[in-house]
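This part of the workshop introduces the protein records we will be handling. A record pairs a protein's sequence with a compact description of its fold. Backbone structure tokens are a discrete shorthand for how the chain folds in space. The question running through the whole workshop is how a given chain folds. The record below serves as our worked example for the rest of this section.
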Amino acid sequence: MRTGSPDRHRAGGRRRVRRGRGCSGVLQGAAAVIFGEETTDLRAASASPLHAAFAEYSQANAWTAINGFAFARRYGEFLSEYDALTNGCAAVDLSVLRRYSLRGPEAAAALARLSSAPTGELRPGESGRGLILDARGGVADLCEVTRLAPELFLLTTTAPGIRRLTLAVRGLDVHTEDIGDNLAALGLFGPGARDAAAAAGFEVDVDGAAAQVRVRGVESFARPTSLGRSIGLELIFPGDEALAIWERLRRTASPLPVGIDACEVARLEGGTPRPAIDFPRADETPGQDGRSPSEIGLPHLAPVDKAWFTGRRALAARPDRFTLIPALIDADEILAGAAVRLVGGRSRSARGDGVVGEVRSARHSPFFRGAIGFVEIDLAAAGEAINPETLRPREGAEIRVDANNGRAALASALETHEWRLAAAYRRRRRDATESARAAV
């Protein structure tokens, strides 16, 4: 099975950065682009710096909004956009992500308090993924931290995070700034992404080292990233220069603008959950514990034995109540919210009909030729039908999903790139625990 890109990347400058270190013992890597939740009310939506350039490609006139910015569901035909992501060169407006700068002698300490990203281990030019948790260990957001200089960092989040950031820097010698509205960010994805960027002046070393260059006199920055199975580059530059940069890319490479529908399929193929879609943000569950990193399939992004981030102590004490499983479903289409049943196993479904969860998100994947998505299972309801080691159905048990045509479609676990990272982390934790017990 083909998978996404590696999970740790390097950024900043033309210099090469040494390889070989894992981030906090975790297989980190090239960032996985994840968007925040959408809103259908476009009356208050703003235009991103790239909106004017991309809007002229819109034939479908199908729009949504992300973080208050208008964003296309698709510009033309879905299959053309999906093909550009996987076989050509796709352009995605990443300006809708939120970005913050942190500068000062204690900037690294502030980020280590705020998120589980391996901030302390990053050299200038390196990036690492992480999670932002609340005090009870619930996941509020996914994030990426890039060390631009010894005392300068770039924080990228899927949703506005200024409140948590303000709390994290209290008492520390660090200056923060919300810079998202001043920047444009363009993602180029697909096999032709690197050549397209190079043709426009964004030269990136073949081994993945990023570059800081001047393009048409504009200070710009390029770094490796990925969107599901599709690897690419993120280009960041001043917002008021967005149209000039896009025009240069259009003339030299003609990448195809791609909307959220094709991006969602690529994301699901890579197996990374989306906040507020595949799990509720911790901020959205007042009075309840939000989903833990392990419950959403991302324990490797919050290693409790390697860092001291907010929520770490709570994580060590709380058991998993749910598991989020990337699944390939034997149906062309499945609706979010469809019931998930365990068949052939000893479940403890309170309803008595085998229902143990629901589909959180699902799309038809041309690559897998069927529906893929995330199914969430209540472990208490599943009982002994779920293996506590692998978080997969035991032999003899099957996951079935209520399909649109009324039949129960078989759902098999999809071993995505993200799932493999989580499985490797769980094995290391289990082996370490067994070694400690043997020593006693």
Observations:
- The mean pLDDT is 86.
- The first helix runs from residue 51 to 55.
- Residues 296 and 324 are 5 Å apart (CA to CA).
- The radius of gyration is 21 Å.
